[in-house]
Amino acid sequence: MLLKTDPRNRAWIEIDPKSIEQNARIIRNLLAEDCLLMAVVKADGYGHGAETVARAALLGGAHNLGVATLQEGLDLRAVGIDCPILVLGNLIQVEELRACLGCDLMPTISSYKEALLCQKIAEDADQYFEIHLKVDTGMTRLGCDFEESFDVIKSILTLTNLKLKGIYSHLALADGDINGESAFITEKQKQRFEELLTTLPSNGKDFCRHLANSAGAIRDPGLHFDMVRVGLALYGYNPISHLHKDLGLSPALSVKARVTLLREVPAGVGVSYGHQFTTNRKSRLAVVAIGYADGVSRALSGRISVLFNEMRLPQVGSITMDQLVIDVTNYPEIEVGSIVTLLGKDGNTVISPQEWSGLIGSIPWEVLCGFKNRLPRLIA
Ligand SMILES: *Cc1c(COP(=O)(O)O)cnc(C)c1O
After folding, report:
1. What does the pLDDT read at residue 125?
2. Distance 55 CA to ligand 1 centre (A)
3. What was the pLDDT predicted at 1?
4. Which domains does the chain have, with CATH numbers?
5. pLDDT tens digits, 188-239
6. For residue 40, which atom of ligand 1 is closest to its CA?
7. The pLDDT of residue 244 is above 70
8. Catalytic residue chosen out of the listed positions 128, 273, 282, 372
9. Which residues have C-beta within 8 Å of that of residue 123, sequence separation ≥ 6?
10. In the list 40, 96, 157, 324, which could disulfide-bond 66, CB 3.0-4.6 Å?
11. 179 falls in which pLDDT band (50, 70, 90)?
12. 246-275: string of b/e by CB count within 10 Å (b at 16+)?
């Protein structure tokens, strides 16, 4: 017999698809009428569940989806999502590209050599293969060399079974300051992209031209071109909140866990591995059933709070694999079974992934992708 526990017994993630839908709508409203919104749902929708996010984003006005891997694209096709999907990562195996063609997924290619491979696959299948070409304008990761891109495009256009649907590039510093180096590099990338496009008939408007991620889309309409590829903002976080007015984005994810034990301890007691924390008074401590094996980084030990009735309760001592301890001396309302919020909204109070990432020298993207399979995901 298969036994299944109630996901709300211990620790879990709650996802609110209405927030995703509304965030998509807010982002859409930043765009010109004919500019498309790609919802980036890679890494299982930044930990929110790719299918849930995809459906909500499409309802909110997204036109297509971006994934990182072939499998992510195939999984979306398998659940019946039939909008255009672009694979943002590079595929190197013939079988992978064949699967793309077979399932109507568009690969990203970074070289003429890859284009030739796609041409061969399409020719053998007697089909047309829709692809996007990525050009490196300054990120120095995927994409063909900017200097070579002019010729690469010309050569690709001679390949009869390929349909070059899009030409794109990726910004390296768009989430930095609006002045200084980040502005300089971002502008330089934009200029290179435009320089390439001007060599094409009618500035390349036969192709879908795209450059901006969330930060690019929010910081400058001049970076929008024909489409923006938005991840973080869709999930409710403004990557350049330090520069801009509130866009009204709302976080779609919260992480909650139960108190499973209460302890009364005297002053001077060491708490958890390494005794990193010692009580300085008679204390009431609560054990919460979530730990670093669920994605609450151990580096956050003693630095975070959890929310309960919109109050912040301090976490104390080392975060362990499966539990952490909070000091509830001042909060008699906490009892065994109480639900605390580690991340996300509790009424009008919020703990954001930016707050966590700022404490440990990480970034909100990594915090969101860090939640593990052990945490069940519930859809609100
Ligand atoms: C992940 C990714 C995005 C989305 O980035 P956000 O900063 O989350 O908006 C856009 N484009 C590419 C190529 C990506 O890999």
Report:
1. 97
2. 18
3. 72
4. 17-239 (3.20.20.10), 253-379 (2.40.37.10)
5. 999 999 999 999 999 999 999 999 999 999 999 999 999 999 999 999 999 9
6. 4
7. no
8. 273
9. 160, 161
10. 40
11. confident
12. ebebbbbbbbbbbbbeeeeeeeeeebbeee
Quick check: is 46 catalytic? no
Q: Does ligand 1 come within 6 angstroms of the Cβ of 49?
A: no
Best of 27, 40, 223, 365 for a ligand 1 pocket test (most atoms within 8 Å of beta carbon): 40
Q: How confident is the model at residue 243 (pLDDT cuts 50, 70, 90)?
A: confident
**Position 51 pLDDT exceeds 70:** yes
110 Cβ below 6 A of ligand 1: no
Specify the pTM.
Answer: 0.97
| Known active-site residue 273 | yes
